[in-house]
Amino acid sequence: MSTFAILLGGDLVRTPRLDAALGQARVIAADSGIRHAAALGLTPELWIGDFDSVTAAEIAGHAGIERDMHPPEKDSTDGELAAEAAVARGATNLIMVGAFGGERADHAFLHMTAAIRLAERGLPVLLSSGFEEGAPLLPGERGFDFPDGTLFSILAFSPLAGLTVSGAKWPLADVDLAFGSSLTLSNEVRGDLRVSLRQGRALLLARPETSPASKG
Fold first, then answer.
1. Composition of the chain by helix, strand, coil, percent to 5
2. Tens of pLDDT along 197-210?
3. What topology does CATH give the domain 137-207?
4. Thiamin pyrophosphokinase thiamin-binding domain location, by residue (predicted)?
């Protein structure tokens, strides 16, 4: 398996869990995501984007990194370009670091939808800010290694059919969920969390560092 970490411009907190996920990952920075490299102790093999969110001093400070420059007027975000560059270099697994928060809510939303689209192409994707993690949910079943008490939500990006959740404070069994429903917000892990889905697309968003909280 060839894991690539994509450094994005959102929020980041370095945690042991994130360090473990990164492991021996190869690294590509997307524009201002280069700022996370030093905090994570990583050296990108490629820096890609239009470079409109970094300073001349930052560019000079990373002169040894290969750069792929694009015009600001383009049809893809810097993060999307970075993901496609990783695929072209043989990525079979992606970690999108700094995928949440930041100055642009539209970019954070697009990172989630892009992760789902990549998963539909057969590429496993983890989104992380260190504090929060996101994983696409498509038809099928998958398990998660979150500790007990982890707060998680399932965000539907379409109507969902046959949603089953076990290993949770509020389990579900073969539930159909309308798009926009809040039924799957603020659940808690209780043991071995497993999620299966018959139809639809969604994202599981978890906070492994958080303490248990009440649904409400």
1. 25, 35, 40
2. 999 999 999 998 64
3. Jelly Rolls (2.60.120)
4. 134-203
